[in-house]
Recover the amino acids of this structure.
């Protein structure tokens, strides 16, 4: 499929153009959201929801779901889409698992999503602290369910096994984009390695596996469908599909804004392939409706 076909059911995105109406975000409201906001402010708790200004924060917090980032806030990789700082990370905080667990308990979170920067500077790539964090949450909030949105750990099985042994309800790893764009979008990542990680997790006993991709980076419809087929071949259970939004002028530009109709089409295709859940929409992010993916 040629490049022109990628504009079907999308609007091109020249620089400095206003976002289409379907990208607009409503301000978060509601009693549960207000309660969580007050706890976060009072105890100076850190969530990706707030630091990343997630468009779904009100909805997720209203359902008792929140996302926490571990292993610091400096990543060893320099992906073209990501707003997280790149550089030399600080030393690990081995009290972080308890801090995160206390935050989840204070916020009375029903379903916690844990994610992290990449730590290729560490021998275990952060997998030991990852597993300790899951166990700390289990000890402090045994009723809280968890999703772990992990890096690829360079595909090293002993690192992946630590996550499997901690047994979160869902293990997630994002493909982020289609095969052709992977080198540009995820400079140090590999498309096939990510697929292998997801397949290994499922075949090694993960309860549910999950992955997500962003659209609007120049991919074609054919390439998106190919990626969905690849994820199904890797035995992934849950897929999220959302619109890429440029974090700053230094990051990759938005090539197109995908229409709601096209997102619906991808959802129908995904469901027809047999995925348990497919979340597809402009404002969908990895943790969107995360608790519902346990069903």
């Amino acid at each position: 499929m040629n490049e022109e076909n990628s504009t079907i059911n999308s609007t091109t995105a020249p620089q400095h153009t206003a976002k289409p109406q379907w990208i607009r975000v409503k301000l978060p409201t509601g009693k549960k959201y207000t309660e969580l906001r007050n706890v976060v402010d009072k105890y100076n708790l850190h969530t990706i929801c707030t630091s990343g200004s997630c468009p779904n924060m009100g909805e997720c917090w209203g359902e008792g779901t929140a996302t926490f980032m571990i292993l610091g806030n400096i990543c060893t990789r320099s992906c073209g889409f990501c707003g997280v700082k790149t550089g030399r990370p600080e030393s690990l905080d081995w009290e972080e698992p308890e801090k995160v667990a206390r935050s989840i308990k204070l916020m009375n979170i029903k379903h916690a999503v844990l994610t992290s920067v990449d730590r290729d500077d560490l021998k275990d790539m952060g997998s030991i602290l990852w597993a300790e964090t899951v166990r700390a949450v289990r000890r402090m909030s045994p009723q809280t369910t968890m999703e772990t949105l992990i890096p690829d750990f360079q595909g090293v099985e002993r690192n992946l096994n630590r996550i499997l042994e901690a047994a979160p309800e869902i293990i997630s790893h994002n493909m982020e984009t289609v095969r052709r764009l992977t080198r540009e979008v995820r400079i140090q990542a590999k498309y096939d390695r990510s697929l292998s990680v997801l397949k290994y997790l499922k075949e090694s006993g993960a309860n549910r596996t999950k992955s997500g991709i962003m659209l609007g980076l120049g991919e074609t419809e054919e390439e998106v469908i190919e990626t969905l087929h690849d994820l199904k071949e890797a035995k992934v259970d849950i897929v999220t599909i959302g619109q890429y939004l440029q974090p700053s002028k230094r990051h990759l530009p938005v090539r197109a804004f995908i229409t709601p109709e096209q997102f619906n089409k991808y959802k129908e295709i995904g469901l027809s392939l047999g995925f348990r859940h497919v979340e597809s929409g402009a404002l969908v992010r990895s943790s969107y409706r995360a608790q519902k993916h346990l069903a």
About this structure: Residues 102 and 140 are 7 Å apart (CA to CA). The first helix runs from residue 31 to 43. The chain has ten helices and eleven strands. The first strand starts at residue 10 and ends at 12.
